[in-house]
Amino acid sequence: MPRRRLFRAAEVVLAVLLLAPATACGSRLPESDFEHRERATPAQDATPIRVGIVTSATSPVGGSAFTGPRDGAKAYFERLNARGGVDGRRIEVRECDDGGSGVGDNTCVHRLIDEDKVVALVATTVLDYAGAPRVSHARVPDIGGQPLGAAYDTWPHLYGIYGSLAPRDGTTGWNGKQYGGTEVYRYFKREHGARTAAVVSYNQAASAAYARLVEQGLRAEGYRVVTEQVDFALPNFRAVAADLKEQKADLVFDAVDSHGNARLCEAMDAAGVEVTAKVTNVQNWTSTVQDDYKDAPRCRNALWATGSSRNYEDVGDPAVREFRDATKGFETHSQWQVEGWAAAMWFTDAAKSCAPQGVTRACVDAFMSRSQDYTAHGLLLPVRFERLADPPGSRRTCLSVARWQDGHGWVSQGDMNRTCFDVPQLPYQQ
After folding, report:
1. What start and end residues bound the annotated signal peptide (predicted)?
2. 249 — phi, psi (to 5°)?
3. CB 3.0-4.6 Å disulfide test: which of 142, 157, 274, 368 passes with 121?
């Protein structure tokens, strides 16, 4: 079923935005999709199909914070090209680093759309998507982007990796509000008996605002909520850890940066805090956990991640195995790479459908606008785009869940297509 996670965009990026000083459902893709094509005949169009990828590869929050989707998409296109491309045509990728600024983003959008004449944007992952209105007005499909802001619930022709039910008529969501479900909190309550949840934040506006959103969702699910706030400049995580132990918290959610999370975990280990789960998000679902939390082994092994895509460690799944084979040269792996790979696959499916009449912006956009329950051949939970006049009051939503275990990495917890709950949809603003 389609789903929209509660406060998804904020969950993925708000903590990262604090980082001025930060440390760095469907079928398998047929083998024929990657088979060599016959050499193009003179009547065939053999010119490359040009796509653009905009990434905040350099930004105030660190060079590697946003590059996962880009790397996954490029890996897909490289393998596709090695096996014949789309109807004999290569995919030519034009990249642009917007530097994490709105000005830089507008510059990238102008260059790719107006100068490079790309057919589509793929796997957009940027800190400030200021160029979104220009993309929409040019009717350039933006496929599989990460919703780090409200753009994918605001503008037509933009198709985020998790879908949207909003009108997308230039106004965000419904009357400026977006809606999301409480399935993450329902999962830990129903599957693991959690009853007390702590939310840790900085005394900084964006961090505190996100913490309030998490608290709202937790309370809607009947949790006793413990709020913990630390000074942004001089955070006392030891005091937080001591109170977590005193309050007997089952779960810990946070609105702090990656470095702060590691320090929080170290303090929790030092204080002997044991929790059912230290819950993180898809952006932190990476193979670097062993190093990032090297001084907090107990807390490290209590890390859980939730998302909307199939665990990159599930190599028994054919689609994941294809991804891992193509990226075996990567130093690290991440869930965002999987989602970038899925975005590139989505564009490829659209381009193949358009090949007989010509791969144009309009044709690719028409394919995308008809997308219903798209799964990237099993890598994503079903994604759909509708334009509902009113926000849904409740929905059946599913989620992918994994737990970190030393020696095994991220271990999936059940089938993401069956880990589903009927949950309320709550309003929020970014």
Report:
1. 1-24
2. -65, 135
3. 142
What letter does residue 317 receive in the DSSP assignment?
A: S
Pairing of strands 303-307, 394-398: unpaired
pLDDT of residue 428: 87
Q: Which residues contact 331 (CB under 8 A, 6 or more apart)?
A: none
Same domain, 85 and 114: yes
Domain that holds residue 357: 8-179+313-369
Q: What's the domain count of the chain?
A: 2
CA dist 290 and 296 (Å) reads 9
Give the per-residue pLDDT at 59. 84
Verify that 187 and 173 share a domain, yes or no: no
Q: Report if residue 375 sits inside a domain.
A: no
Backbone angles phi, psi at 158, to 5 degrees: -105, 125
φ and ψ at 423, to 5 degrees?
-130, 155
Residue 36 placed within a domain: yes
Same domain, 417 and 297: yes
Let me know whether 137 and 152 are in one domain: yes
Same domain, 252 and 272: yes
Q: What is the CATH classification number for the domain harbouring 244? A: 3.40.50.2300
pTM value surpassing 0.70: yes
The rounded average pLDDT for each run of 10 residues, N- to C-terminus, in the chain (430 residues) is 45 41 36 41 75 94 86 98 97 97 98 98 97 98 95 98 97 95 97 97 88 94 97 95 97 90 96 96 92 96 97 98 98 97 98 97 96 94 96 96 98 97 90
Alpha-carbon distance of 291 to 409, in angstroms, equals 12
Domain for residue 1, yes or no? no
Residue ranges in 272-369 assigned as alpha helix (H): 289-292, 297-300, 318-326, 335-354, 361-369
Task: Answer yes or no: do 279 and 414 share one domain.
Answer: yes
Neighbours of 109 (CB within 10 A): 27
With respect to residue 383, please indicate whether it lies within any of the assigned structural domains.
no
The helix (H) or strand (E) run that includes residue 96 is: strand 91-97
